[in-house]
Amino acid sequence: MDRNSITGLGLITLILIGFWFFNKxxxxxxxxxxxxxxxxxxVETLMEQERIAAQLSATESQNxxxxxxxxxxxxxxxxxxxxxxxxxxxxxxxxTTFTTLENEKIKIIFSxxxxxxxxxxxxxxxxxxxxxLVLFDGDKNKFGFTFTHNTRIFNTNDLYFNLKSQTDTSVVxxxxxxQGEALTFNYVLPPDEYMAQFAVQTxxxxxxxxxxxxxxxxxxYMEMLSFEKGRSFEQQYSGLYFKYYKDEVDxxxxxxxANEELRTRVKWIGYKSQFxxxxxxxxxxxxxxxxxxxxxxxENSPFLQYNSSEAVVPVDFTRxxxxxxxxxxxxxxxxxxxxxxxxxxxxxxxNLGWGxxxxxxxxxxxxxxxxxERTISNYGIIILLLTILIKVVLFPxxxxxxxxxxxxxxxxxxxxxxxxxxxxxxxxxxQQATMSLYKKAGVNPMGGCLPMLLQxxxxxxxxxxxxxxxxxxxxxxxxxxxxxxxxxxxxLPFSIPFYGAHVSLFTLxxxxxNLAYTKINSEMTQSTSQMxxxxxxxxxxxxMFLFFFNNYAxxxxxxxFISTLITVGQTLLIRRFVDEKKILQRLHANQKKxxxxxxxxxxxxxxxxxxxxxxxxx
Length: 618
Hints:
By secondary structure, this protein is an alpha+beta fold. It folds into three domains: about 25-90; about 95-350, Beta-galactosidase, Chain A, domain 5, CATH 2.70.98.90; about 360-590, no CATH class. It has helices at about 5-25, 25-60, 65-85, 230-235, 335-340, 355-375, 380-410, 410-420, 425-440, 450-470, 505-525, 535-550, 555-575, 580-590, 600-615, and strands spanning about 100, 105-110, 115-125, 130-135, 140-150, 150-155, 160-165, 170-175, 180-190, 195-205, 215-225, 240-245, 250, 260, 265-270, 275-285, 290-295, 305-315, 320-330, 490-495, 500-505. A nine-stranded antiparallel β-sheet has the order 7-8-9-10-19-16-15-12-13, with no helix packed on it. A six-stranded antiparallel β-sheet has the order 6-5-11-18-17-14. A hairpin with a 4-residue loop joins strand 2 (about 105-110) and strand 3 (about 115-125). Helix 2 packs antiparallel against helix 3. Residues about 60-75 and about 525-530 have low confidence and may be disordered.
C-alpha cells in the first residue's frame, strides 16, 4: 500500500470518527428513547392482557351445562391464567387472611393480600363522636411495588403472599418459587412505639421479576378520613407533605387539587390530617417521586382528600438485597415527632408558622406550655396562665404605647389649631407644622405603633400554635367541649355566608371585648378629621373577626378574648395612675427648649434655603 492510500484511509477514519462524534445521541435523547421503548413495552403488555382477558370472556360465555364441560372451562381458564402469569400464577388468587400486631400505642392489622398493612388504630385516641380512631382500613389504603414478569405488569398489592412467620412483634410475608426465588416483606412493631419497621428482602429475583432502569416503583394511595367536628378547619390543616433528602420539608396546596414531580431524592412522604399522620420513610432515599392530592368537595363525605404518590426505589435483582423503610402512624405531637431526630424533621408536619413565628412557637410557647401541662390538668387554666405570662412580658411595650397615645392626646388642641390656621389645600405645609410641633415637644408619632409592631409576631405565632396543638384535642373548658374546634352554644337552622350555622360564644366574647378596646383607643387618639373613614374601619375589624373566627378553634378565640381583656385592664389601670396634666406640662417645657438639629437635618435645611434663593433670582 502506497503513501497516498495510507493517507486516504487515515482521512476517511478521521471523517468517520468526527461524523460519529458530532451525530451521537445526547444523554437526554438516550433517556427519551429508553422511555419510548418502555412505553411501547407497556402497551404491548396491556394488549397481551386484553387478548387473554378476551379469551377468558369468550370461554366463560359458552353455555355449557354438563359437569364435564364445567371442568373443561375451569381447566381452560387456569391454562390461560398460567400462560399470562407464568411463575406468578400461584399468587394471583387466594383466600384473604389477617394477622395482628399491637403494642401500647397502636394496633396494626396485616393482610396476606398484598402482604400489606390493612388497617391502623391509634389506641389512645377517639374520633369526635367517640369511635375508635382508625387511620385507614381495607382498600382505603393501597400500597405495593410494581414489576413485570412474563411480559405482564404486576403490583404486589394484588398478589397473595404466604405468611412465613409471626411473633409478638413481627410478621413476615413471602412470595417464593420452587427454584428458591423469593420476595419477602418483613414488618416489626417495637413496644411502646408509633414507628413500625418495614424491610423488603430480595433473593435471586432476576428470573422472576424485571424492572425498567433498575428501580421499583412504589405506588401508595390513601383516602384520608375525617376525625374532627370542624370539617372545614380540619381540611385546611390536612395535606400531603414530603421531605427532600438532606433538605427542607415541603407540601402540596391544602386548598385545591395539586400535583408535583419531585425530580431529586426524597427522604419521606407523609399523608397528614390536622392531628394525625401516616408517613412512609426510606432509610436511604427515594430516587424521585410524583405526588398528587385531590380535595374532597362534598362536605357530607367522610373523606377529606385523596392522596397518591409514586416513588422510585433503587433495586438490583442480580444480587440479594434488603431495602429498609419505616412507617410512622401517630399523632402530630411536637415532642413525639421531635424525638425521631433532626435528620427526619418530622416535627415540620406541624405548621407552626414560617420564620420568626415558627421560632417563637418552638423555642418559647411550646416549652412553656409543656411545663404548665406537667402540673396543671385543665387546659383552660393553662391557656389563662400562658396568656397572663405573655402579657406580663409584653407590659413594657403596652405601657410605652399608652404613654405615646397619651402625649398625642394632650397635643390634640394644638394639632387642631394648626389645622384651622393652615387650609386643607396646603397639606404639605400643614404636615410640616405638625411634625415641627412633635419635634419640639419630644413626641414620636410612631411611638405607639412600634410597641404594637413588636407584639405582632407573638400574636401571629399564637394564631398558628392553638389550631396545631393536639394537646387541646377533645379537652373541655366551661361550655366548650373541645378546645381544638369551635364551641357552639346555638345551632342555627340555616347557614350564614362566611359565618356558618352555629354561634361560637368565645368568638362572640372576643368580638365584644375588641369593640370595647377599640372605643378606648379611639378616645386616646387625636382628631380623625384628616382621615374620616379611619374610625369606621377601626370598628369594622372586630366585626370581621366575628365571621373569621367562628369556625376556628375555641382555644384560639379564648386566648384572644383573655389577652384583649387583660390589655383593657392594663390600659384602664395605667390611665388611673398617669396624670395627663403633668404630661402636658412636660411637653410645654420641651417646646421652650432649643431644638438640636442633626447634621443631616441641617444639610436639608441649607439645601432648602438655597433652592428658595435660586427661585427668587429667577
